[in-house]
């Protein structure tokens, strides 16, 4: 610098030094041509944009700045020889460009990258949300279909249960009707059996009277009566008919009883049948054409043939025998 004025022509003030970021460490060296080079020459300087103000006067003729940030700087310097002789201020302008990763284009790339990243995240979240919604929809659909299958299955079970119950009730009704009809048929057959027995007994007595000559053989009334009784002999098969129907109602009761106790006679089997029908001695007596006392005697003899103990009930034994075979 030259004593407070500059030589003609362009000055450093009109120029600006442009530096890349890798040259952000700078050393300034300076000297004075106005004053004689004496040890008493002092300098003061400051770097606008970095220093806060002028530095104290110093005889040192250089200044280092390291790791300066990017930006525009102006370096000011002045010299003096004593307190009364001070030079004018000299300035030098320079600009340090930012590194490539802090340039406008870099920030634009960063912004685009962040925008792309955010867009990718939003896109991923959107796809993930749609995927979850689709999975939820499929799960709900599957759950709904499973519930419908369960409802249909339960409905089918209830329907089958109702049908089985209806069939069971219907079968029970039919069984009751069949048992009732068979019981009526058995009762009617019993009456026919009694009629047959009465007719045979009457015929036998008339024939006995005829043999003893108590009644004349040539009486037309007797012949007519014997002829009528002979026509009724077809009732001989009524007992077999009764036995078949009785077995159908009471589960082959007579057949089983006969197989277990083959020594039982037909009239004893009839008594067993009446007892199985839970008839009293008073009800049985006219059916067998005997007295109530005769029924009691028949029951006593029947107990012996069935080998029953004293404490065992005859009717209960026959009832249990029928239940085992029903």
Please characterize this protein's 3D structure.
- With 326 residues, this protein is of the alpha+beta class.
- Among the domains are: 12-99, Immunoglobulins (Immunoglobulin-like, Sandwich), CATH 2.60.40; 250-326, Arc Repressor Mutant, subunit A.
- The protein has 8 helices and 6 strands.
- The strands form 2 sheets. The chain has a 4-stranded mixed β-sheet, with no helix packed on it. The chain has a two-stranded antiparallel ribbon with strand order 2-4.
- β5 and β6 form a beta hairpin.
- α1 (104-211) packs antiparallel against α2, α1 (104-211) packs antiparallel against α3 (238-249) and α6 packs across α7 (292-305).
- The longest helix has 108 residues, at 104-211.
- The N and C termini lie far apart (142 Å).
- 11% of the residues are buried.
- The model is unreliable at 1-12 (pLDDT under 50).
Q: Helix content range of the residues, please? A: 55-70%
User: What is the CATH C-level name of the domain at 12-99?
Assistant: Mainly Beta
Strand order of the largest sheet: 1-6-5-3
Biggest β-sheet strands, sense, barrel: 4 strands, mixed
Please, what is the CATH homologous superfamily of the domain at 12-99? Immunoglobulins
- In terms of DSSP E residues, the strand content is 5-15%
Mean pLDDT: 80
Structural class: alpha+beta
What's the end-to-end separation, in Å?
142 Å
CATH topology of the domain at 12-99: Immunoglobulin-like
**Rg, please?**
70 Å
> How many β-strand runs?
6
**What's the multimeric state?**
single chain
DSSP helix count?
8
Judging from the principal axes of the Cα atoms, what is the shape?
rod-shaped
Model regions low in confidence, pLDDT < 50 over at least 5 residues: 1-12
CATH architectural category of the domain at 12-99 = Sandwich
What is the ordering of alpha helices and beta strands? EEEEEEHHHHHHHH
């Amino acid at each position: 610098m030259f004593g407070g004025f500059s030589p003609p022509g362009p000055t450093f003030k009109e120029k600006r030094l442009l530096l890349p970021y890798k040259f952000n460490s700078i050393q300034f060296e300076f000297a004075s041509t106005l004053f004689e080079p004496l040890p008493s020459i002092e300098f003061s300087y400051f770097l606008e944009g970095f220093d806060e103000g002028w530095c104290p006067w110093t005889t040192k003729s250089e200044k280092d700045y390291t790791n300066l940030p990017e930006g525009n700087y102006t370096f000011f310097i002045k010299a003096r020889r004593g307190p009364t002789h001070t030079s004018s201020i000299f300035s030098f302008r320079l600009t340090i460009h930012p590194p490539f990763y802090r340039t406008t284009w870099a920030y634009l790339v960063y912004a685009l990258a962040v925008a792309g990243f955010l867009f990718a995240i939003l896109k991923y979240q959107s796809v993930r949300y749609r995927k979850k919604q689709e999975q939820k929809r499929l799960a709900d659909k599957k759950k709904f279909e499973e519930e419908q299958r369960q409802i249909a299955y339960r409905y089918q079970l209830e329907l089958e249960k109702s049908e089985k119950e209806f069939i069971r009730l219907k079968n029970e009704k039919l069984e009751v009707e069949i048992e009732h009809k068979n019981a009526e048929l058995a009762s009617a057959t019993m009456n026919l059996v009694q009629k047959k027995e009465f007719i045979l007994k009457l015929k036998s007595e008339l024939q006995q009277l005829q043999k003893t000559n108590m009644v004349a053989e040539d009486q037309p009334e007797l012949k007519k009566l014997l002829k009528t009784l002979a026509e009724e002999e077809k009732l001989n098969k009524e007992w077999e008919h009764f036995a078949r129907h009785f077995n159908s109602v009471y589960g082959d009761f007579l057949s089983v009883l006969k197989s277990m106790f083959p020594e039982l006679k037909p009239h004893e089997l009839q008594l067993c049948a009446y007892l199985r029908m839970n008839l009293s001695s008073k009800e049985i007596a006219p059916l067998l054409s005997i007295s109530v006392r005769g029924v009691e005697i028949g029951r006593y003899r029947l107990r012996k043939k069935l080998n029953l103990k004293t404490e065992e009930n005859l009717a209960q034994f026959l009832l249990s025998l029928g239940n085992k075979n029903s």
